[in-house]
Structures are given as C-alpha cells and as structure tokens.
C-alpha cells in the first residue's frame, strides 16, 4: 500500500498516473486480486481482510483523485505559459503597399473635378490620326506630328500623344452640355530629366449649347482648382498657342519652393508652369459637327503636379519603381 501511495505521488503526468490507476483498480490490478483472495477466507479473518481492502481502495482512490487534479492544474499552467504571446515583443515590420505618388496625385485631381460635377471619361491608348490630330485642328504639317514625338504603329495608328482625343470621342458621341475630364496615359518619343516616353495627363472639357462659355469661366474654374491643389498661390495666365484652342494660355503658379525669391526649380522666374488651356477653337467644333456652342478645354501633366507637390527633382525617378523612393510616400 505504501509503495502505491509513493508511486502515485511520484507521477509526473496525468498519463503516467492513469497507468498506476490501472495497476491498482484494473481488472488485473492489485485490488482485484485482493478481492479474489477473499473467497479463500472465512469468518472474522474474512471480515477484517475485506474491511482493510475497502479502506485501502478508498484511500488509494482519494490519493489518485487529488494527485490527478494537481497534475491537471500543472499541465494547464505549463500549456498557458508555453502558448503565451508577448505583445510587447518587437517584430519585423510587415511591408504594406501604398499608392504610387503619381496615382495619388491623379486621384486628388480627379476627386476635385468630380466634386465640381465633371464626368469621368476614358478613351483608347491606341488612337488614329483623326482623333489625335486632325479633328483637333492639327494640320498635316504641324511639328507635333513629327516622327520625333509620336510613336506610330505599322498600320498608321499611333499611341495617343495627349488626352485631347477623348474630347473628340466625347463630342462625337453626345450633344452638349458637356462637362468632363479624361485622365489617362499618353506617349511621346522623349526621354530626359523632365520627359518620359509614357506619362499621365488629365484633360478637361466644358461645352455649352450657347455662346455663354468664356475665357473668364475657364480662368475662375482653374484658379479654384490650382488653389485647391497647391494652397494659397498666385495664378498667372500667359498667352500661348494650341491648335485646338483660341485664345490659348499656359498657366503658371507662383513658385511654391522659393515664394518669390527665385530658385532652381522655377529657374529664377518665380513662376512654375502647370497646365495648358484655352477656349475651344471653332474648327474643333466643326470637326465634330457642333453648331452654336461654346466651350473651354485644359490639359495638365500629372507627373509635373506630383513632382511639384512631392518635391521630386528628377521625373525619371517616378518611373524606376525604386522602393527606397516610393516608401517615402506611404
Ligand atoms: N493637349 C495639350 C498638350 O498635350 C494640352 C491642352 C489640352 C492644351 C487642352 C489646351 C487645351 O500639351
């Protein structure tokens, strides 16, 4: 009996204890053989032996039960300690993605115009001469058609050099009023510090079935937009030329880097050129069969905006996909 109490107390696990329990209480266990012996005894001897056996059974049982509950508690405790999570432990940071700065600025531009009730239009990247040039009043001899600037396909189609063909597609498929922007990719054969062969533009077009739309409307609309994007800047309209607008202007904002001191970014002019615009040329309206309408259009380079807003000095770095650069825009 003492031996078994010892065995029980020395058990290290519930499984081990179970083995000992079977040794004692099992069919071939010591108690079973004890009770078997009873048959051979008589009278007082039998009584005493039975009483002892019963006592022994109860004591061993109690001993096992209390040991079992201790072991269970200990086992749960070790499991809990083993599974514990140290929430203060330093871990390798998980890399998370982010919008490319160009797409981020594109989204901000789109959001502004959508808030001003402009609809969002798209067009094909592979265009034809009519939509990209002809209908936009770009005569055959215009330098923009030069092989230098345009990527041509073998079948005379081309990669659109600007988003302006979307204006044409929209006007050919609907009647005014039109109030649209067309964001998208454009392509030119150009590659240096400020030019990449693929870049992004946002085109804008407003057309009314009356002669109500004037340069003044265009001015105030663009001033609102540029102040929204760049904050409290001065906006300047400089006479310029585009075949598809007349009059045309290039739009400058006061330099957001030097605030009038003169710096490298503004080439000491204190102005930064940000977009082109104008009143839609009557020839464009004739090309799409519009009569008695008026409108204005503008076009901007998204990379240019991103470079200014994020202070990226070399346009090409926006296309290299270098994570060390891109991670700074998260
Ligand atoms: N399409 C012109 C360009 O790519 C920009 C522009 C659009 C100018 C609309 C005026 C009006 O340079």
Automatic annotation (TrEMBL):
It is found in: Cytoplasm. It comes from the Bacteria. It is an enzyme of class 6 (ligase). Residues 110-320 form the Aminoacyl-transfer RNA synthetases class-II family profile domain. SUPFAM superfamilies: Class II aaRS and biotin synthetases, tRNA-binding arm. Keywords: Aminoacyl-tRNA synthetase, ATP-binding, Cytoplasm, Ligase, Magnesium, Metal-binding, Nucleotide-binding, Protein biosynthesis. Pfam families: Phe_tRNA-synt_N, tRNA-synt_2d. Gene3D superfamilies: Bira Bifunctional Protein, Domain 2. Binds 2 magnesium ions per tetramer. The keyword Aminoacyl-tRNA synthetase applies. Its EC number is 6.1.1.20. GO terms for molecular function: phenylalanine-tRNA ligase activity. Mg(2+) binds at residue 246. Its cofactor is Mg(2+). It catalyses: tRNA(Phe) + L-phenylalanine + ATP = L-phenylalanyl-tRNA(Phe) + AMP + diphosphate + H(+). Belongs to the class-II aminoacyl-tRNA synthetase family. Phe-tRNA synthetase alpha subunit type 1 subfamily. Tetramer of two alpha and two beta subunits. This is Phenylalanine--tRNA ligase alpha subunit. It comes from Campylobacter majalis. The lineage of its organism: Bacteria, Pseudomonadati, Campylobacterota, Epsilonproteobacteria, Campylobacterales.
């Amino acid at each position: 009996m003492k031996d078994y109490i010892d065995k029980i107390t020395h058990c290290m696990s519930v499984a081990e204890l179970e083995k000992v329990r079977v040794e004692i209480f099992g069919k071939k266990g010591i108690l079973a053989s004890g009770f078997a012996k009873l048959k051979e005894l008589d009278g007082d001897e039998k009584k005493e032996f039975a009483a002892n056996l019963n006592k022994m059974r109860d004591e061993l049982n109690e001993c096992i039960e209390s040991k079992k509950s201790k072991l269970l508690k200990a086992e749960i405790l070790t499991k809990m300690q083993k599974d514990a999570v140290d929430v203060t432990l330093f871990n390798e940071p998980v890399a998370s993605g982010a919008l490319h700065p160009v797409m981020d600025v594109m989204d901000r531009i789109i959001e502004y115009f959508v808030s001003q009730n402009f609809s969002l239009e798209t067009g094909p990247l592979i265009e034809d001469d009519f939509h990209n040039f002809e209908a936009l009043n770009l005569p055959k001899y215009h330098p923009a058609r030069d092989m230098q600037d345009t990527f041509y396909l073998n079948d005379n189609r081309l990669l659109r050099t600007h988003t302006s063909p979307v204006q044409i597609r929209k006007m050919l498929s609907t009647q005014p009023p039109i109030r649209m922007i067309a964001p998208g990719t454009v392509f030119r054969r150009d590659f240096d510090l400020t030019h990449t062969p693929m870049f992004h533009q946002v085109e804008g077009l407003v057309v009314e079935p009356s002669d109500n739309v004037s340069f003044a409307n265009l001015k105030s609309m663009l001033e609102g937009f540029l102040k929204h994007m760049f904050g409290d800047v001065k906006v300047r309209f400089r006479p310029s030329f585009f075949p598809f607008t007349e009059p045309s202007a290039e739009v400058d904002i006061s330099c957001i880097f030097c605030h009038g001191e003169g710096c490298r970014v503004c080439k000491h002019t204190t102005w930064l050129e940000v977009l082109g615009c104008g009143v839609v040329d009557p020839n464009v309206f004739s090309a799409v069969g519009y009569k008695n309408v008026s409108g204005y259009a503008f076009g901007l380079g998204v990379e240019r905006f991103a470079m200014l807003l994020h202070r990226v000095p070399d346009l090409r770095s926006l296309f290299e996909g270098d994570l060390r650069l891109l991670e700074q825009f998260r």
